[in-house]
Amino acid sequence: MNNLDRDLRVLVLAPTGRDAELISDLLTSKGIRCEQPGTLAMARIEMAAGVGALLVAEETLTLPEITAWAAQVALQPSWSDFPIILLTMSGEVDEESQRRSLLRKPLGNVVLLERPARPETLVSTVQAALRSRRRQYQMRDYLAVQRLAEEALRKSEKLAVVGRLAASMAHEINNPLASVTNLLYLMGQSGSLWECQEYAQTAGRELARVSEIVTQTLRIYHQTGRPELVSPAEIVNSALNLFRARLTAAQIVVQTDFRECRPVLAMGAELRQLILNMIGNALDAMRTGGMLKIRVAASSERSNGSRPGVRVTIADSGSGIHPAIKEQLFEPFVSTKGDTGAGLGLWVSSEIVRKHSGKIQVRSSVSPPAAGTVFSIFLPERPHFESRVFFARAV
Ligand SMILES: Nc1ncnc2c1ncn2[C@@H]1O[C@H](COP(=O)(O)OP(=O)(O)OP(=O)(O)O)[C@@H](O)[C@H]1O
Ligand SMILES: [Mg+2]
């Protein structure tokens, strides 16, 4: 017997005379598989293995039996609504018949068939019950496929995160490792002990940076650090200080506009990383000088119940974002910088913003004289932190 045959069996329980046998013969002659479990307790055991419907004579149902069935019915999975065809006694609607109808209420999906039932009526009622059971099985199979697909998706998402993590780490440690290779080569070529010591010291510093990057990058966390109250303006200031030398060398004029605003609850290190990513990109877009304007001001996000927060706007007069990548800007590995860009900065930044339940938007133009890019980041004062797997990237 294959699974479907088993799942569509009809259990026939009619203890009086040869009823069960006659009914089974009739249904079998119509291609319906029947079994006679003998007792309701046996029928319940069979039900666990898969049954299409139960055809049962009303007199079999005692109160304890109904209670036991009701418990089983309540335990059905969400897709199941097990059909029961109840062969009722004929006669008037009286007190006794009403008592019986109340009694069978907990049995769930019950169809009544009054005896004596015509053979065609009996067969068509059973067929209808089996049709509905077949649809329930379709739903069961659909849900099982859904579950498998969801699991596969979850696994592939986890793998993707690990892949990105590895790519990001490789990207970050590539430069210091190249320096170390270079320094080792120079040491081999040098005849001076003093020079070799200098090279060795520099190589040591580069390796320390590699180890720092690895530690920092491997910090995969489900929201470990604690959120703290931070001032976005202070973070912007400290980030600008870090870039001071590059800004001066590239002849970039910086204009800041810090308005009065309240601190926001945030992961400080991540906000710093976010701002550094944005300023780094702006600098890359202004190789031959330009203007960098950063504004920090109190704001509220109208689209989401007027949440109060802070908006950081970073505008540069650089090259503008290449139209070919605009659509995928926040996806990983999207870059126009060749070997010098991994295309992870904006992806990581958008993850940070999302984790802080904020919003990041961009406007950009590549046509001079209006060429340039504006990133606008809204950070709510009191974010609801998502606890999803996330990695911090070394900066
Ligand atoms: N301010 C900007 N002006 C012009 N183009 C930008 C700007 N910011 C981002 N882009 C474009 O978006 C791409 C993706 O930026 P992203 O920061 O994600 O990666 P990346 O800077 O190329 O590499 P990484 O940040 O990983 O070192 C960049 O390569 C660049 O083409
Ligand atoms: Mg970048």
Description:
- With 395 residues, the protein is α/β, with parallel strands linked by helices.
- The chain folds into 3 domains: 3-148, 3-Layer(aba) Sandwich (Rossmann fold), CATH 3.40.50.2300; 150-221, Helix Hairpins, CATH 1.10.287; 228-391, Histidine kinase-like ATPase, C-terminal domain (Heat Shock Protein 90, 2-Layer Sandwich).
- It contains 11 helices and 14 strands.
- A 5-stranded parallel β-sheet has the order 2-1-3-4-5, covered by helices on one side. A 5-stranded mixed β-sheet has the order 8-10-11-13-12. A two-stranded antiparallel sheet has the order 6-14.
- Helix 6 (119-189) runs antiparallel to helix 7 (193-217).
- The longest helix is centred in the middle third of the chain and has 71 residues, at 119-189.
- Bound molecules: adenosine-5'-triphosphate and magnesium ion.
- Magnesium ion (MG) is lined by residues 277, 280-281, 341, 345.
Q: Could you state the CATH homologous superfamily of the largest domain? A: Histidine kinase-like ATPase, C-terminal domain
Oligomer: single chain
- Structurally, the number of domains stands at 3
Helix content: 40-55%
Any idea of the CATH topology of the largest domain? Heat Shock Protein 90
Q: What spatial form do the alpha-carbon principal axes imply?
A: elongated
User: Could you give the order of the helices and strands?
Assistant: HEHEHEHEHEHHEEHHEEHEEHEEE
Measure the end-to-end span.
64 Å
CATH class of the largest domain: Alpha Beta
Helix count from the secondary structure assignment = 11
Query: How big is the Rg?
Result: 36 Å
Can you name the CATH architecture of the largest domain? 2-Layer Sandwich
Overall pLDDT score: 85
Give start-end ranges of low-pLDDT stretches: 388-395
Query: Strand order of the main beta sheet, please?
Result: 2-1-3-4-5
Supply the helix-strand structural class.
Answer: alpha/beta
Catalytic activity: ATP + protein L-histidine = ADP + protein N-phospho-L-histidine
EC number: 2.7.13.3
Keywords: ATP-binding, Kinase, Nucleotide-binding, Phosphoprotein, Transferase, Two-component regulatory system
Domain Histidine kinase: 168-383
